[in-house]
Amino acid sequence: MTRVRVRPVRARLGRSTARFAAAAAMLVAGCFAGVSAAGPALADGSTLQAAAAESGRYFGTAIAAGRMSDSQYMTIANREFNMITAENEMKMDATEPSRGQFNFSAGDQIANWAIQNNKRVRGHALAWHSQQPSWMQSMEGSALRTAMLNHIAGVAGHYKGKIYAWDVVNEAFEDGSSGARRNSNLQRTGNDWIEAAFRAARSADPNAKLCYNDYNTDNWNHAKTQAVYNMVRDFKARGVPIDCVGFQAHFNSGNPVPSNYHVTLQNFADLGVDVQITELDIAGSGTSQAEQFRGVTQACMAVTRCTGITVWGVRDTDSWRASDTPLLFDGSGNKKLAYSYVLDQLNTADGGSTTPPAGSCTVTVAKTESWGDRFNTVFTVSGTNNWRVLIRTGSGQSLQNSWNATVSGTSGTLTATPNGNGNQFGITLYTGGNTSTPTASCTAV
Ligand code: G3I
To answer: Where does the signal sequence lie (predicted)?
Structure first.
């Protein structure tokens, strides 16, 4: 790939609304399918961390303590990345192998190396159904709740002041269409276990950003994505201390990068949280893999509050799923095509939306005709012609029809965007026994 070196980074600040809309439209239009995303003017970040820093973002990797004696591994890690996650060393089993007896030696090894090399640290993970120490696996109820809170206090307290962001709770929702919480021993301590974990983390390390982290939450239309979104929305409404949402982003052919990825990231960001890609890896090789990496990078850069991307390992052979060759360096430490695509995307002027979209908008909601099983609602947007309206339907309601806008989703939160028919659009909802009027919010894009 040819890269032209031009103007200094800061010259790129101050992009127009139109450019943001164009970037978003390009994603929707199928950038992942191979449409070139190259922008006209490229800058000079020659490593992932330098290129990401140009738009105020970080580029990180997971590090395994057991590989820190491998000089090739450490050389690449030091050169390319400025955010470090311990792949396993800060998890519950590693940090509290016996109840009340903490062991931070491997976690410290990683955190200290990162800090000594001017990198920041993402903490992973304080509370999770998996990789619990054996003494915890057999616990239930209030004893487990107490043990979880003690664990969070002990680990987040130990690392106080050293962690940029903690994955406070990891993978708490079911896969599939239920949208339910995962049935785990932690969940069985009571539905408030997640917020209890966040409050404990806040009091242990008040300056760390606190994230909820999960996988299969990339496609906006998936039930799991909606369920996590609803939880975060509820947390923000009730003042539960949450600052960010992590999208693990483990992709393969059965779970490819969705074309609406930037919509997902933007909708979460609109709740008032940062979003981060936390464990990126994409099975595959060559151009197809590289284009998907580029698509993820582009999606993050299209969202102002997407603060950074972390890949889950350095070389393919370091990956938890090495046979998928899912990373940016091959087993010999060579840069793969995917590396070039990511670097170029980070350096692409059009890719980095560091300015929020200009303008604001409002939307009014009016319920109109109704029949036995369904009713119409009309939405009128004012303030901008480039908008996204999130519609909250009532419990049991589902979309039957829409007009004068593109509407995605069927129940829960629907997303409406202009389709060239002006600023008034409508939907027909099946009542499902619930005739309440939906609510809506507008974002200028
Ligand atoms: O350290 C032991 C070693 O002593 C032993 O010889 C060897 C063989 O059994 O196992 C080693 O431990 C393994 C550990 O990785 C370190 O390599 C564990 O068995 C293995 O289960 C563990 O896998 C980790 C996995 O989480 C566990 O759930 C992966 O490295 C790690 O990449 C992966 O990371 C998770 C994130 O935390 C959350 N999101 C999904 C992601 C991928 O599964």
So the answer is: 1-37
